[in-house]
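INFO batch 0412 | record 1 of 1 | parsing
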Amino acid sequence: MKKITRDQARMFAFDWRDEPRLRVAAGEEFEVETWDAGSGYFRTEADLAIPSKRPGFDRNPPLANPVGGPVFVEGAEPGDTLVVDILSMELEATSWTAAGPGRGPLGNSTRWPGLSGGYTTRILRHEPGPDGSRGKGTVRLNDRFAWPAKPFVGTLGVAPEREVLTTLDGQGLWGGNLDIDLACPGNRIFLPVYHPGALFYLGDTHASQGDTEFSGTAAESQACVRLSLNLIKGWKTPGIRIETPDRIVAVRVDRPLEAAVQGATEDLMAWLESEYSVGQADAYFLVSTCPDFVVRIHQMCRIGKLSYVTSASLSRALLLGR
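INFO prediction complete | emitting tokens
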């Protein structure tokens, strides 16, 4: 099986000028071995998020959040849609999260001196599940708190049309640093194609994350991701879409937060109209009156140029009358 190995997965921008690391046929399975967002720096709780000690933090923006790619998909052309199927994720034994001065929304808070007065790193353990895999096991913060692992890909996307954007805070309709936990095994992600070959990148894998990623750092983990990339020829998705076994999900990246929520909702309404034959008025009323309509905030970090990532979704059962 074709693979981007970890030593090859150290790209820090979405750049259409990059030489492809891998060429695959549509539907061909391959693997990407990812670094965590800290490029392997955080190994023990003595490794603190002090910028002067972190490799790559002498650059502006920092060389953080590495990804593997680009992957060239044979036959992909501008105006197509790339369909990303994440087939499996095998986590490494640990993940990390960190706090400290200037980090996240409470990094300069006098109300929370335990977060802003010094640096703290936690190494989370990944305990295997009944099948022996860590991806279906438990994430343990300490002796008191543990929860089921929910691995997902935090950063994925294609090279955008014109810009060269960093993997740290680059986002858009083409993907990027989304930190949306629905980019996980079993779900299907739709992205527009802007360049021949699509030029797909992936990295920043997480063992788990709470909604909004409030501190700015999830359970950051290395992983091996198996996936395939398919094409819808001649149709360009108007935005990021995700299909789960149970729901259709429209994703929007924007600021302020209310713009992201409204944008995701309108994108979902447009999806209902174009593919489920729902009239505009009924779509409008549906998202306002049906408790099955759900809005989630996946990323709300005030870090760099990051925008807010939201989703709006409805169940397939509702739309199919089941």
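INFO post-check: The first helix runs from residue 113 to 116.
INFO record closed
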